[in-house]
Amino acid sequence: MLGLRRRGAVRVSVCVTGQHREMLTQVNDVFGIVPEHDLELFEPGQGIESIVAKTLLRLTPILQEQRPDAVVVHGDTSTANAAAQAAFYAGIPVVHLEAGLRTHDLGSPFPEEANRQLIGRLAALHLAPTEGNRAALLAENIPAQRIVVTGNTVIDALQDVVGRLPAVPVERRRVLVTLHRRENLGATMVGIARALRRVAVESPDVTFVVPLHLNPAVRRAVLPELAGLGNVDVREPLDYLTFVGELARCGLVVTDSGGLQEEGPGLGKPVLVTRDTTERPEAVAAGTARLVGTAEEGVYAELRRLLDEPAAYRAMATAVNPYGDGAAVPRCAAAIEALLGVGSREPDFVADVRAARIRNVA
Prior knowledge:
Layout: H1 2-7, E1 15-16, H2 21-31, E2 37-38, H3 48-66, E3 71-74, H4 78-89, E4 94-97, H5 112-122, E5 125-128, H6 131-139, E6 147-149, H7 153-162, E7 171-178, H8 187-202, E8 207-211, H9 216-226, E9 232-235, H10 240-249, E10 250-255, H11 260-266, E11 271-273, H12 281-286, E12 289-291, H13 296-308, H14 310-317, H15 328-339
Parallel strand pairs: 1-2, 3-4, 4-5, 5-6, 7-8, 7-10, 8-9, 10-11, 11-12
Helix pairs in contact: 3-4, 4-5, 8-9, 8-13, 13-14
């Protein structure tokens, strides 16, 4: 949206949901975003159905009053899905940013895979990060003229923030960990945390940095397993600048996140993905990310391998990032302007392995 505003051809109004306000506010502050509308959805302990219903009910009057020419939704959250539905019901074209990611398994990740497939049926314009995402959309009979391959804006944001930070030496035996996937909650997440604990106990020289998600179910699963370990640094959620600093400093990443599968490779970090499926197979194919599943033994074995085998580590740390070249924002903005009849599209993004690495300070 900042890219559209800077170009000046389109008036932009930003609407936020108000979920996880602490995290939302600090990200907006980093990039200078001031929302015009706030749905104020947050309510402790509410379910997905409540989030979706409230999004529809609170966004619809805004759309009716503002009558925008298009509504842009980002990613695969339940609020993005509900916002796309609200726009569709109001007869307003939907633009899907980060379109075409697929696992083809509605249960993994849940509910994100269902959300993005549903948005895909409603969108008038699909801003697909990679050629693989475009192929997935074509396979679902989305007309080619409605798809633009842009690269991912997360790489643009990462480049912007990395440029503000001082260079730091990489600590190869420093592990950044994030866990939050809904389908991993409970015994599965406990097992992942136990694998981390085993490595931490065996290798006191390995430091684990664990910014812990605000979800109480995540904390119930993770905290008891990692408590009392001097080399495990459990923190509250980090602001974006601090998080990127930790990403630049660490040697490798253990995560069930989607975005970190793109951000980690952008800084030359091997990523162990604690999931059974991924909507981002490009990083796995490039060798910079590995699906390690969710079983305790598998997570433990793969983490030990990267810590103990320098050749295995180097192979992943020197793989390329296929997700963007830092110019996704102008491609997305141009495509939206073309949809609205006030501009023309730019050429599609083509992954360039020579320019894929942002920075890897060893």
